């Protein structure tokens, strides 16, 4: 019996067959933490999937917020992705380096802004290259497109809302940072930030959702989430360092048909840097 996979991921075989199809837009959304010692722009220039445009996660953001990767205004987002030749009606495939790392953030953001048909490439470009599939250094020059945004603000959690959730326990909190950052045993990568987690949060490190850069089966995703103490029948708000890997939990939840899930935009960059927020350490 074949394991059932998420409807939101596509295989390298599927994408390679679609390369000649101009209606399929491919997006390289690679981004890395400093410790990974990888340069996404340099890697894109050295070889990317044919037709892929580079989506700069540091630049396509609200640069006035003082926080990394905060959600841009719908108009700003539409202008940025329109320049990449992407409209909300396209079939869009997003990939990153290792697979199921930063691509889910752009998958989630595109959908939150109104795109209907968006997928994540299983295995990322690392897997693509390892299998000897085609890459190119040619940088596409797409014709500008018009992206008509329909922003769903309901799936985004603000600081005020997060504060209320922590105070009342009205929603479950799933934290995608590494386990040692969650417990406070490891310092945060951003200076001046406390380590630990929000009271009541559950640890769901982003790496537990995939194996070899490929999203786990639906059954395994369910087991992983439930083992962390998350009840799939109840609302969930996800968080991480800066709102990027929290989207991996969103991908997992939505793959399982979970409906009431939201992403805390400021994430730990906001919560951990403030003096007026509750922070606890340890596993619980």
In short:
The protein is an alpha/beta fold and 284 residues long. It is 29% helix and 14% strand.
Q: What do these coordinates show?
A:
The chain is globular, with a radius of gyration of 18 Å. A five-stranded parallel beta sheet has the order 1-5-4-2-3. The mean pLDDT is 96. 29% of the residues lie in helices and 14% in strands. It contains ten helices and twelve strands. It has helices at residues 12-18, 40-46, 74-83, 103-112, 124-130, 159-168, 179-183, 218-227, 246-255, 267-271; strands spanning 9-10, 24-28, 53-54, 91-95, 117-121, 156-157, 172-175, 202-203, 210-211, 214-215, 236-239, 261-264. α4 crosses α9 (246-255).
Highest-level CATH class of the largest domain: Alpha Beta
Q: Main beta sheet, described?
A: 5 strands, parallel
The average pLDDT score comes to: 96
Q: What's the alpha carbon Rg, rounded to whole Å?
A: 18 Å
Class by SSE composition: alpha/beta
- Tell me the overall shape: globular
Tally of helical runs = 10
Distance between the termini: 37 Å
CATH topology of the largest domain: Oxidized Rhodanese, domain 1
**Percentage beta strand:** 5-15%
CATH level-four homologous superfamily name of the largest domain: Rhodanese-like domain
Q: How would you spell out the order of helices and strands?
A: EHEHEHEHEHEHEHEEEHEHEH
Strand order of the largest sheet: 1-5-4-2-3
How many domains comprise the coordinates?
2
CATH architecture annotation of the largest domain: 3-Layer(aba) Sandwich
Instruction: Identify low-pLDDT runs.
Output: none
């Amino acid at each position: 019996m074949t394991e059932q996979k998420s409807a939101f991921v596509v295989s390298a075989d599927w994408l390679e067959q679609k390369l000649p199809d101009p209606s399929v837009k491919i997006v390289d959304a690679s981004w890395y933490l400093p410790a990974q010692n990888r340069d996404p722009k340099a890697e894109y220039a050295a070889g990317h999937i044919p037709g892929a445009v580079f989506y700069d996660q540091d630049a396509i953001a609200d640069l006035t917020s003082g926080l990394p990767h905060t959600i841009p205004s719908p108009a700003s987002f539409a202008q940025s992705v329109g320049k990449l030749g992407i409209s909300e009606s396209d079939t869009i495939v997003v990939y990153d380096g290792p697979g199921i790392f930063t691509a889910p953030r752009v998958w989630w953001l595109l959908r939150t802004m109104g795109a209907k048909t968006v997928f994540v490439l299983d295995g990322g470009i690392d897997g693509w290259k390892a299998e000897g599939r085609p890459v190119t250094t040619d940088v596409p020059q797409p014709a500008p497109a018009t992206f008509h945004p329909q922003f769903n603000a309901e799936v985004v959690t603000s600081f005020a809302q997060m504060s209320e959730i922590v105070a009342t326990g009205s929603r479950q909190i799933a934290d995608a940072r590494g386990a040692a950052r969650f417990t406070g045993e490891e310092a945060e990568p951003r200076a001046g930030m406390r380590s630990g987690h929000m009271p009541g949060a559950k640890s769901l490190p982003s790496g537990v959702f995939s194996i070899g850069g490929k999203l786990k089966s639906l059954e395994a995703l369910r087991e992983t989430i439930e083992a962390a103490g998350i009840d799939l029948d109840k609302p969930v708000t996800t968080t991480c360092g800066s709102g990027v890997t929290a989207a991996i939990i969103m991908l997992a939840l939505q793959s399982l048909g979970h409906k009431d899930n939201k992403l805390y935009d400021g994430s730990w960059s906001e919560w951990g840097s403030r003096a007026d927020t509750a922070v606890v350490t340890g596993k619980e």
